[in-house]
Known about the structure:
Elements: H1 2-26, H2 46-52, H3 56-63, H4 66-74, E1 79-85, E2 88-93, E3 95-99, E4 103-107, H5 108-114, E5 116-117, E6 120-122, E7 133-135, E8 142-143, H6 148-173, H7 184-203, H8 211-229, H9 243-259, H10 263-270, H11 279-322, H12 327-370
Antiparallel strand pairs: 1-2, 3-4, 3-8, 5-6, 6-7
Helix pairs in contact: 1-11, 1-12, 4-11, 6-8, 7-8, 7-12, 8-12, 9-11, 9-12, 11-12
Amino acid sequence: MxxxxxxxxxLMLAAQFFTxxxxxxSSPAQQAEPLPEAGLSPDLxxxxxxxxxxxxxxxxxxxxxxxxxxxxxxxxxxxxxxxxWRGRSIAIYLPVIIYDGGWHCFSSKHILESGEYGxxxxxxxxxxxxxxxxxxxxxxxxxxxxxxxxxxxxxxALLLLLIVLITARWYRRHDVLKESPTGLAALMEPLVMxxxxxxxxxxxxxxxxxxxxxxxxxxxxxxxxxxxxxPFFPGGANLTGNIACTLVLALFTFFTVNFTGTKHYYKDxxxxxxxxxxxxxxxxxxxxxxxxxxxxLTIRLFANMLAGHIQLLxxxxxxxxxxxxxxAMTGGATVITLVFGIFLDALELLISFIQAYxxxxxxxxYIGMARQHAE
Length: 375
């Protein structure tokens, strides 16, 4: 098992390495132009020539746009870039669906290759709604396009449904009192039981009403966290590092808490057992605390997953930045980056599980607080 885990980590790191290499070296605009052999004009004096000699840091920056590589991975897009092959971009062009005086549906290839399509174009860098489809005047139409994150959401939902159905089929066909789970069921049982026990401890007697939601929230976050680490299709999307996705997950918990809360829960918010002159102040504080809870769930998951992706990409980009300093620096940077890359990959796997666990645990605690009854 340890050998298998090490092999998986090495393969993931190698995939990240070659994916970053393809992104860094594929675009002609990002490749550094070769300098002349002498690197100087024959009409310049030695002093002038020394002044015009480029600094190593500048040469390194010309060879790789680190910001473009990183943000190209973590941000949403109208296409799913796979790789570069012989100077050609291999990508999945996703459907654009907009309403602008009527419904329009077309492939994103039309607008990405030419820069515009019909009355719409992609907002350039520095413009409002940068990277989004806008009208000529810069305003946005009603856009429900299938973007990279949306497609990743669909894929992960189908994968999760498949995992649950396969696990349920094993339990329907076997007597769990006579034999232990095998295969996928053996992997799922401890995860499901862990969340089930968590719900029982934090919520109380009616925990069974909320266990299905908590289990699916945990598995959904965990699956998407793991898919985000894999740098090739169908992985590589930064779904749980997108604040819109984490906000919706947090709102599910928020509505579950407040729509199923007991009278005692609302009494503690609007009419707490404190002296009369403190009741208005405490009510405001309690309402503010109830609104902050989903915000904390949102930012915690979003920030941790986004930071993990950026860390991994930065480590890989170091190799290509150091390539401008010669073979010795490149070799040393490669070894160091590989070692730290393996460590960060292992750390990211751990963080992926921890973040899914923390989100589920806090959700169960919030639900349990709302289900308390007067003593």
